[in-house]
Amino acid sequence: MNFAPFRIESGARTHEGRVRDHNEDSFCAREDEGLWAVADGMGGHEGGEWASARIAERLGEAELPAEFDAATDVIAEAIRAANRLILAEARQRQRQMGSTVVTLLVRDERYAVQWVGDSRAYLLRDGELIQLSRDHTQVQEMVDRGIMRPEDAIGHPMGHILSRAVGVRDEVEVSMATGEVVPGDVFLLCSDGLHGYVDEADITRLLSRGSPERASEDLVEATLANGAPDNVTVIAIWASDPTLLSLPDSVGT
User: If we measure between CA atoms, which residue out of 23, 138, 160, 46 comes closest to residue 96?
Assistant: First the structure.
């Protein structure tokens, strides 16, 4: 896959947290294809885990065309296919189950973020952390409509009530944001187990530390240090200039 003029590296970590005994999160990491995804299931051990795993499977099996826009269409259709599968299973089991999902596609010098729910995508560029996705929650909708001030939405007790999810309605609308990739960009995909319990200043500080693997590990460790009442999944993706040499932190004399 052509990532020119970038070297793409990624690291992922998932953890059940300190309270729950099972993990309803799933993720997909196809570094060679430039596709990553995080899915956060809901519906308990037999429901949420199953739902998020089906999304990860559909995205993992999708045949991605080389053309950027065509690839985004395939990703959206994979999410819609998972929606139909989860909804059918939920009706058969006579119980509600579903999942959020957020994906990142990187091709050439472009990126696309697609999402349903409140799993998030961030971009760290020139020291500034930018939220690329916009939560599909009732609280965010109230902010968007001017009913609630953004500062009042922070930590709101209804903040986790979703307005959109995969597997709960016959049709699912997949949101998308696109942009250009710049060497040095760092992307983050995460479930709300991270952004609900680690503030953006700490996310910014930890996200570009050492390597994508270390960044993802440090972000999960920060969540665990803060109590981690929820499952947490993190994928860090770095786009670096391939001509730059990796130098050691210190050179002996």
Answer: 46
The string of pLDDT tens digits covering residues 62-101 is 999 999 999 999 999 999 999 999 999 999 998 989 999 9
Q: Please give the residue range of the domain that contains residue 172.
A: 7-240
Alpha-carbon distance of 89 to 84, in angstroms, equals 9
Instruction: Look up the CATH number of the domain holding residue 55.
Output: 3.60.40.10
Question: Comparing C-alpha atoms, which of 236, 189, 233 is closest to residue 17?
Answer: 233
Which single residue is written with the structure tokens 């696109």? Answer: 178
CA distances from 218 to 45, 154, 207, 221 (A): 26, 24, 8, 5
Residue 245 lies in a domain: no
Name the region of 68 (left: φ>0; alpha: ψ -120 to 50; beta: rest).
alpha
